[in-house]
């Protein structure tokens, strides 16, 4: 196994130009592929999750031309993919797997969708149930409720209310929202029960609107797409920097001096994870926001302030707070994060095990984590990363506690941020 030894870092400061947002990159690629007209996508993220979406769209017959840097020209297929039979491998990319499942269910073709073994343990039953309710023909190829899936042609009758559960992943609602305009009919989606990770739905609605499709909404309960709408290229979309990736650098600034500035997200961002900055403020950090940048410096106290926060709205950046808790002046509680259990790994279990290795006392609840920081961090811990990019990135912050730390299998960061550790190293003073 490859390992990365991080030496203690006394102080951080500097500016980071963020890689593109995963959530915006994959949504934009799919919408551009489904639209009529060509879309220039600027600053696309270069990572495994996006590569899976690009490869899949290529196999589906969508022409995507690389331009300079990370700009691409997507030639929209005008509502229907040209290829009617394909076998797609989507790695562990939820933002590719879930939306493509919904779009392909409407394509009158034969498709097979699979991923890495962990993807086959991540639930998709609530999305399949919703699509079947509207007539889709989707079969489970292994375990009911989980990928891999086989999709066959079917008579789709969306002219009614489609119920979908939103308490396991918001990506199911996102998938339905993006796909259903392809029917051309008026269709309503009713969220049954609680909806988690709500800000991701705002990203979906914002990007759909830029491609010309309006959704009428009744709060978080009901979403209606009027018939007769179709995706039309806006010509160009610039991908914002990734707000979840920003969280590691911003936390570093709060813990170890700063100022650290991230460029590419700010007040004007459509990503919910920019609200990580508010959480850091609650922990006592000095936070300044511009339209397209955020800067964080350590506050007036030696340690961060202990916190007790509901983090359902920022599930990805919340992982950064779990490690930041090591630097707090008392026990910290992260609440309402049960969805962590069905992501790249069971993140509640993994986080508890690895935080204990550096000396924290951790109480792992069904949907919460209570982290009591140690008086001194244990040096030289060997951190397992569970093929979870965020585990690897979060635990780099341990080096700011004056101790060395080893990150096992550091290349798992390729899912969203292949050169994360190089960028992190540049902040060390
Ligand atoms: O829609 C999206 O882009 C995402 C939604 C979130 O998932 P859940 O809705 O499953 O929490 C988030 O964790 C994921 O990284 C990206
Ligand atoms: C949960 C994540 O990914 P996915 O899009 O595969 O759900 C993540 O990036 O933290």
From TrEMBL:
Q: Which family does it belong to?
A: Belongs to the EPSP synthase family.
Give the binding site residues for phosphoenolpyruvate.
22, 94, 122, 171, 347, 390, 415
NCBIfam families recorded: aroA
Q: In which pathway does it act?
A: Metabolic intermediate biosynthesis; chorismate biosynthesis; chorismate from D-erythrose 4-phosphate and phosphoenolpyruvate: step 6/7
Q: Which gene encodes it?
A: aroA
Q: Which Pfam families does the entry link to?
A: EPSP_synthase (PF00275)
Task of the protein: Catalyzes the transfer of the enolpyruvyl moiety of phosphoenolpyruvate (PEP) to the 5-hydroxyl of shikimate-3-phosphate (S3P) to produce enolpyruvyl shikimate-3-phosphate and inorganic phosphate.
Q: Which residues form the Enolpyruvate transferase domain?
A: 8-423
Q: What is this protein called?
A: 3-phosphoshikimate 1-carboxyvinyltransferase
Q: Which organism is it from?
A: Crenobacter cavernae
Its domain of life? Answer: Bacteria
């Amino acid at each position: 196994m490859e390992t990365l030894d991080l030496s203690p870092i006394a102080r951080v400061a500097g500016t980071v130009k963020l890689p593109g947002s995963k959530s915006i990159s994959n949504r934009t690629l799919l919408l551009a592929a489904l639209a009529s007209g060509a879309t220039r996508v600027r600053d696309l993220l270069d990572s495994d999750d996006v590569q899976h979406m690009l490869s899949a769209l290529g196999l589906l017959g969508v022409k995507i031309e690389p331009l300079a840097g990370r700009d691409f020209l997507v030639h929209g297929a005008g509502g229907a993919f040209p290829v009617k039979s394909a076998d797609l491998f989507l790695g562990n990319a939820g933002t590719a797997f879930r939306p493509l499942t919904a779009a392909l269910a409407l394509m009158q073709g034969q498709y097979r969708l699979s991923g890495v073994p962990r993807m086959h343990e991540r639930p998709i039953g609530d999305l399949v149930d919703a699509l079947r309710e509207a007539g889709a023909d989707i079969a489970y190829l292994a375990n009911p409720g989980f990928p891999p899936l086989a999709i066959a042609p079917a008579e789709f009758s969306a002219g009614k209310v489609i119920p979908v559960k939103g308490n396991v992943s918001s990506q199911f609602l996102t998938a339905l929202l993006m796909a259903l305009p392809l029917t051309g009919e008026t269709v309503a989606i009713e969220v049954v029960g609680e909806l988690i990770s709500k800000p991701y739905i705002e990203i979906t609605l914002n990007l759909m609107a830029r491609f010309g499709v309006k959704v009428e909404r009744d709060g978080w309960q009901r979403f209606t797409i009027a018939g007769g709408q179709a995706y039309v290229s806006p010509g160009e979309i610039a991908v914002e920097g990734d707000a979840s990736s920003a969280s590691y650098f911003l936390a570093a600034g709060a813990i170890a001096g700063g100022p650290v500035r991230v460029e590419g997200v700010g007040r004007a961002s459509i990503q919910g994870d920019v609200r990580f900055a508010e959480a850091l403020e609650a922990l006592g950090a000095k936070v300044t926001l511009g339209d397209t940048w955020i800067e964080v410096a350590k506050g007036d106290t030696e340690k961060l302030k202990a916190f007790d926060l509901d983090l359902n709205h920022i599930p990805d950046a919340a992982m950064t707070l779990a490690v930041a808790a090591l630097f707090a002046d008392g026990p910290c509680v992260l609440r309402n994060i049960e969805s962590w259990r069905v992501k790249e790994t069971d993140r509640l279990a993994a986080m508890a095990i690895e935080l204990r290795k550096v000396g924290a006392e951790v109480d792992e609840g069904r949907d919460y984590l209570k982290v009591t920081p140690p008086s001194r961090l244990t040096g030289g811990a060997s951190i397992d990363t569970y093929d979870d990019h965020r585990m690897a990135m979060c635990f780099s912050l341990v080096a700011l506690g004056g101790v060395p730390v080893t990150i096992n299998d550091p290349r798992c960061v390729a899912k969203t941020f292949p050169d994360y550790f190089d960028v992190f190293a540049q902040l060390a003073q």
